[in-house]
Amino acid sequence: MTIQQLSQEIGIGIDTLRIWERRYGFPVPDRDARGHRSYSLQQVEELRVVKTLQSLGQRPGKIFSLTPAQRRELLSELSAQGFPQDRGLQKLVYQMRPGEIGSEMSRQLDALDLVNFIHQYAVPLLQLLDHGWNSGQLSIAREHLISDQLEALLRTRLSGSSTGSDPSILFLTLSGERHKLGLLLAAVLFEQAGLPAIWLSEELPLSEVPALAQELEVVAVALSFSGHYSARQAKQNLSSLRKSLDPAIKIIAGGHAVRQFTSLPNLLICNDLKQVDLLAKRYFQPSSGRKDKS
């Protein structure tokens, strides 16, 4: 497996993999005649454990000081403490028949208001999916099946366009970013806070964002950069976008790749969905009242 394939498979940026190799001596790839890196399946599985431990708050220095067996033991201990233990979620992720998943999500949405559904159900569900995928307990096909049904349900709750004179936000991902669910959760929450969300389901080249934002007359452009995205590339993209975008239009960015990003003019970093209400009130003038369509 090449380093590009490994990055896509595990969700760890290429730059991060190279830094770990230099700093911690892992992973140590084989190299072909041209010097290109190649990774074994055992290294892939060990990196799944590393990625999951990181998501549980463990720092690389501590993780790589442990043996593979010690990492798995630590993962078992932390997983029991840090991941959703809700039996309904566990059943949906690992046991429920495909034809029942969508109706179960809809039932949960009907039982909760939309904001509570996101915080109390969708976020724990995504955490459980991420854990299952990174630990190898959940197949890619199963993860996609569940994620796609959650995305379809949430998209029905978006108005789809700005209405009247309400300030609106354009939500999009740039070319190369395939992970959109976290951004979709944010879009729904911003709309519930009174800021209409304009959602683009397809990736967009960076060069086309400024003109589209200007045409739509949005007050902000929101983007997400997952762990699959290079942190260095995310920084370059945000800097380029800030230079080419109307200075009055804010940028909202979130995701693993921008966790340690330094500030740019009119750039808001949002890596906690619980911040959405506060950001909406502090930096925008949302229309009053929520727009729950559930």
From TrEMBL:
InterPro entries: Cobalamin-bd_sf, DNA-bd_dom_put_sf, MerR-type_HTH_dom, MerR_fam, Meth_synthase_dom. Transmembrane segments: none annotated. Residues 1-57 form the HTH merR-type domain. Keywords: DNA-binding. The keyword Transmembrane does not apply. It comes from the Bacteria. GO terms for molecular function: cobalamin binding; DNA binding; DNA-binding transcription factor activity; metal ion binding. This is DNA-binding transcriptional regulator, MerR family.
